[in-house]
């Protein structure tokens, strides 16, 4: 019997020691396939369209800069340096986006920006070990771009330096960079004012206005708005568009965008309060009217 007890004891000790062994924590190891993707290129979200705001440049050769970012996915950061090569994705992504989202006849369609208006000096994006993101610059000449056109640049991942370590996430590898052109004065404003016959006006001839107006960037120092309460639709621009150019001394030059007959106009922009104070005369069916009012920039919602 003593011999039997001696044999059982080591077996029990082994079982106890085995039961006390610490199990491996799954979070200490990579949980997902390591992949690389372009930030904003999620195909399930607007076909990979990412809209960036770029200011109008003052001169034709001046460039505005935005970044294209490449990121790595996984539960752990990469443990080595990698490089990702980018290339243009052509017009197919834009054509598909227009087909899916801008299919009505009146919709303005995106068009690929001509190569002469943009460049990507480096198409190789490096991501250092332990980091998640890398970026490269996209440079765009905006001065002469038309405000009522929709421009886009397409970019895709061509290759990655270590494909056995990290792969390309195909669904997030093509980016459409849509351009939204702005300037220092473009924004949403609260308009307050009145219009009336300029000559022989009766009290009943005066109409007051209080409404929201969008001032759209036209170039570096000019914005456009729609006359009185005209619907803000580009189809109304030719008949009811008005341009405000802010001069170097903050005085205003007011001219028609298209066919509206404006016979006089003046005003001032206050860069501190961000208020336009303006007056302009316009003629309809041989009768001259005057609009006088203010446009105050709406407060930003935070």
Distance between the termini: 83 Å
User: What would the average pLDDT be, to the nearest integer?
Assistant: 90
The sequence of SSEs as H and E is HEEEEHEEEEEEEEEEHEEEEE
Shape: elongated
The biggest beta sheet reads: 8 strands, antiparallel
Number of helices: 3
Q: At the fourth CATH level, what is the homologous superfamily of the largest domain?
A: hypothetical protein (bacova_03559)
Return the CATH topology of the largest domain.
Answer: Immunoglobulin-like
The portion of residues assigned to helices is: 10-25%
Could you please describe the fold and organization of this structure?
- The structure is a single chain.
- The chain is mainly β and 302 residues long.
- The protein folds into 2 domains: 31-182, hypothetical protein (bacova_03559) (Immunoglobulin-like), CATH 2.60.40; 187-297, Beta Barrel (Lipocalin), CATH 2.40.128.
- It has helices spanning 2-19, 92-101, 237-240, and strands spanning 35-38, 49-55, 63-73, 82-88, 110-112, 118-119, 124-127, 133-141, 150-160, 167-168, 174-182, 187-197, 207-217, 222-226, 241-246, 252-256, 261-270, 275-284, 287-297.
- The strands form 3 sheets. An 8-stranded antiparallel sheet has the order 16-15-14-13-12-19-18-17. Strands 2, 4, 5, 7, 9 and 11 form a 6-stranded mixed sheet that branches.
- The longest helix is centred in the N-terminal third of the chain and has 18 residues, at 2-19.
- It is elongated and about 85 Å long.
- The protein starts with a helix and ends in a 5-residue tail after the last strand.
- The relative contact order is 0.14.
- The model is unreliable at 1-18 and 24-28 (pLDDT under 50).
């Amino acid at each position: 019997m003593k011999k039997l007890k001696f044999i059982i004891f080591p077996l029990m000790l082994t079982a106890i020691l085995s039961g006390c062994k610490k199990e491996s924590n799954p979070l200490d190891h990579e949980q997902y396939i390591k992949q690389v993707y372009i930030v904003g290129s999620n195909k399930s979200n607007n076909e990979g369209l990412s809209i960036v705001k770029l200011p109008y440049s003052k001169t034709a050769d001046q460039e505005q800069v935005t970044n294209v970012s490449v990121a790595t996915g996984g539960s752990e950061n990469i443990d080595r340096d990698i490089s990702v090569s980018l290339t243009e994705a052509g017009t197919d992504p834009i054509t598909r986006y227009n087909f899916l989202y801008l299919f009505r006849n009146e919709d303005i369609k995106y068009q690929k920006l001509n190569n002469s208006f943009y460049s990507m000096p480096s198409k190789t994006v490096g991501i250092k070990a332990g980091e998640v993101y890398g970026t490269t610059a996209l440079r765009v000449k905006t001065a002469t771009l038309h405000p009522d056109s929709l421009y886009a640049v397409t970019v895709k991942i061509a290759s990655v330096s270590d494909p056995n370590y990290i792969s390309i996430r195909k669904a997030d590898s093509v980016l459409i960079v849509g351009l939204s052109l702005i300037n220092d004065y473009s924004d949403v404003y609260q308009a307050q004012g009145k219009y009336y016959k300029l000559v022989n006006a009766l009290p009943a001839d005066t109409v007051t206005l209080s409404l929201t107006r969008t001032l759209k960037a036209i170039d570096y120092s000019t914005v456009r708005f729609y006359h009185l309460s005209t619907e803000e639709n580009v189809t109304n621009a030719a008949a009811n568009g008005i341009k405000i150019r802010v001069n170097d001394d903050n005085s205003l030059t007011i001219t028609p965008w298209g066919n509206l007959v404006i016979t006089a106009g003046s005003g001032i922009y206050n860069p501190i309060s961000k208020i336009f104070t303006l007056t302009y005369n316009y003629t309809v069916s041989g009768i001259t009217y005057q609009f006088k009012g203010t446009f105050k920039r709406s407060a930003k919602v935070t």
